[in-house]
Amino acid sequence: MANYSTNEFKAGLKVMLDGDPCSIVENELVKPGKGQAFNRVKLRNLMTGRVGEKTFKSGDSLEGADVMDLEMEYLYTDGDMWHFMKTDGSFEQYAVEKKALGDSVKWLKEQVPYIITLWNDKAISVTPPNFIELEVVETDPGLKGDTAQGGSKPATLSSGAVVRVPLFINQGEVLKIDTRSGDYVSRA
Amino acid sequence: MAIDWQPSASLETLRERARLMVKVRDFFAQRDVLEVETPVLGQGGSTDVHLVSLHTLARTDKGQRRLWLQTSPEFHMKRLLAAGSGPIFQLARSFRDGEIGGRHNIEFTMLEWYRPQFTLDQLIDETATLIMSLLPSFPGPLVHYRYRELFHTYLEIDPFTTPLEKLRSLAAKRAQMSAQSLAAEGRDTCLDLLMSVVIEPQLGQRELSVVLDYPASQAALARRHQDVDGEWVSSRFEVYLNGIELANGYDELIDAAEQRTRFADDNAERRRLGLPEVDVDERLLAALEHGMPEGAGVALGIDRLIQLALGKARLEDVLAFSTPNC
Lengths: 188, 326
Prior knowledge:
CATH class of the largest domain in chain A: Mainly Beta
Distance between the termini of chain B: 17 Å
Shape of chain A: elongated
Radius of gyration of chain B: 20 Å
Radius of gyration of chain A: 21 Å
Keywords (chain B): ATP-binding, Ligase, Nucleotide-binding
Number of strands of chain B: 13
Strand content of chain A: over 45%
Strand order of the largest sheet of chain B: 1-5-6-13-12-11-8-7
Number of strands of chain A: 16
Strand order of the largest sheet of chain A: 9-8-7-10-11
Number of helices of chain B: 9
Oligomer: heterodimer
Strand content of chain B: 15-25%
GO molecular function (chain B): lysine-tRNA ligase activity
Pfam families (chain B): tRNA-synt_2
Largest sheet of chain B: 8 strands, mixed
Helix content of chain A: under 10%
Protein name (chain B): EF-P lysine aminoacylase GenX
Largest sheet of chain A: 5 strands, antiparallel
Helix content of chain B: 25-40%
Structural class of chain B: alpha+beta
Largest interface: A-B, 23 and 28 residues
Order of helices and strands of chain B: HEEEEHEEHEHHHEEEEEHHEH
Domain Aminoacyl-transfer RNA synthetases class-II family profile (chain B): 17-324
């Protein structure tokens, strides 16, 4: 991979840091009155998801990371691995480990497209679509007429996620959920 | 992909910017400070080790010559002072290669002015008055700090006496840097890093902060003097607002021999670091030999001040076209 110097660091650039692939979140040139220039760089570690800050001397460089985001549909799990297929018509499949799946495991639904991040052709993270439609498999019976009042109750969805829903929601209904916050949006 | 040709700043911002520029010119007109325009190109350039100068080749009366794009209008303005101009100011396009970011642009506008016979304190007051006159509301009082005092307050060390090894490890730790990347760096680099990462963000919050008594090694083109502790320090000040460095002022060095030594030292340091040497401005040295009046001068990043006055997030928000968009 190419090397990138601090001048070329910009949001979204993927670089290697301490052996892990990272995505640059922010890069700020810091130059005191009469001194040497530094770059304060915020990076997201793509293996752990954690964001950290690092300082580099201006002109230092980092090796680029062979990281790609690809759209793939979820197929099935065999218990050990979760299988996805590219949506580009190639039918190419990737097996994803539980660790790479992370929290996204609770938003899985067959035939829904996910963004799979590959590092050296190995899946390291899975990002669900911002909104997903899932069926309620278990919740207390809905309260008739209670459509305007506040109040909520837990509901278990077909993917296994448990979300707070309004009191009028019934088992078997399909709901639109915001996967970033885990909030109920509406009936689908 | 469509080419982005649109201005970096909104047209409304450019109108506000123009209004602020009128205020700047009024400020100096009321004080009988003459507006001057000096060349962007010069046969000499800034030898400052931490500035990267742009240069270009031009066909001149002496054949093809390398001319330097000025990193500030300082040298030409000092030649005017030596010629007897009296107080002068300039809104000067200046160039510093590689400096791009939320507070930097390779090509930017420097507001620089010189006050023969002024003391540093008088110039600090005038600088604060100008800054406050351009801000939409009172930023808080002007508060003075000594460099040493800031390091005591925020880092509990003495910047002048702390051993280099300790400075390196502290700077690496506070800036989230690997220790090895600072292993070869000197005191000033470590102090700069601590200043920018730890101290600067605390300055100019609900006040206008002015910092004085920088280490003598960070004097650049300022005189040096002994402070109240007997330490040799630079006769230099910096002004901060909202954690951003706005202005840098000097009790100007007028000693030609000392100036020549500093240029030579810079170029020696450049050779040591494998950086290109910069042609020394012989005309400035000749002007200093002729004699430049004692006094103080200050350079203020007017783009940054406009950015703060208009509450914009990034420098490019107040530039018609930032360098990445030029």
